[in-house]
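Regression check, thymidine-5'-diphosphate case 353:
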Amino acid sequence: MTFRSTILITGGAGFIGSHVVRFFVNKYPDYRIVNLDALTYAGNLENLRDIENKANYVFVRADISVEKEVFDVFEKHKPDGIIHLAAESHVDRSISNPTEFIYTNIIGTVNLLNAARMLWKDQPGGKRFYHISTDEVYGSLGDTGIFTETTPYDPKSPYSASKASSDHLVRAYHHTFGLPVVISNCSNNYGPNQFPEKLLPLFIHNIRQNKPLPVYGKGENVRDWLYVVDHARAIDLIYHRGKDGETYNIGGNNEWKNIDLIRLLCKLMNEKLRRHPGTSEKLITYVKDRAGHDLRYAIDSSKLQNELGWSPSVTFEEGLSLTIDWYLANQNWLDHVTSGDYQKYYENQYLKR
Ligand code: NAD
Ligand code: TYD
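Current build output:
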């Protein structure tokens, strides 16, 4: 079978990446989707079980921080486009071990930029390097204000500093070498398949198991939440219709103070688990705050809405309910992830055939 285009998606076994891979594989049967992932603790091929045998899908295990591995993948698959999601993504891990974030998020991005530059030097037309970033690069807001595409960068955690650095490098490759890049910066995602170290899956898991819910500080930090499939829809639009060299902010216009969100989650979980009102709330436990904890993020996504016609497709109430239902229906997934069993999936699926 011949394909119209080959897109390399990095980090496709992770949370957002797996939704993006599924979206593209199903929507574009004439694109060949190459999923490059190192399968770190956050990469789980079980996320893609439903599409792994499709004719337009290929998985390649490689580490973007190793130049040769990246160049070998480019040489073999010759992508026309790259959607780059692979990253170390958890702020708490970046506080305990920043170095890994430098290798993957910065060096890894430079390796991809260099490989794309090399591959496309003779045929630059119709190519696209799409870098997926976060609103955390803009720093922390006070009680008012909102991040726009022109907000100056002011990252505060090793995670956000490493993402900011990669964003700058992507822009520099556009400015200096004319690489056809586009960047988007998105707010906090939630939905199925998120590793249970992040707030929502961790708390859903703990409520189900009657374990304490560790709220950092006073729970007054604010995040702007977006359903992961709406992020994937935005990525599709920006990949196809975004302008070279431009940045697009993506957000749900959906700010929640952590403690209010956690109380809503407890209420919904009480209903879904048929527990008495107030039961899950008793698990709330205030713990030592995260070091350098950003107070508030809020995204202005009007550029994306006005120029490309994007808007979220699910309300927060729908998205949160769908998300809880997914984790409750997929206890196996959570059990595999928390026990580490999911890491055997690659071996069984890809090496023992
Ligand atoms: P994730 O941690 O769930 O997944 C990251 C994926 O990257 C995993 O599959 C992992 O195996 C892979 N990976 C890590 N290091 C690698 C390496 N050296 N080589 C190859 N693959 C490697 O992350 P996520 O939450 O899905 O985030 C994906 C991207 O979206 C990241 O770039 C992140 O900065 C960005 N982002 C995330 C959010 C969010 O709320 N989760 C919001 C905005 C932007
Ligand atoms: P997180 O999901 O780690 O995303 P990010 O730090 O990238 O925004 O955390 C979301 C918010 O929830 C953040 O303000 C930190 C807070 N939080 C807790 O209070 N307790 C927890 O156990 C975790 C993981 C996060």
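Comparison notes: The first strand starts at residue 5 and ends at 10. Residues 134 and 185 are 4 Å apart (CA to CA). No diff flagged against the previous build.
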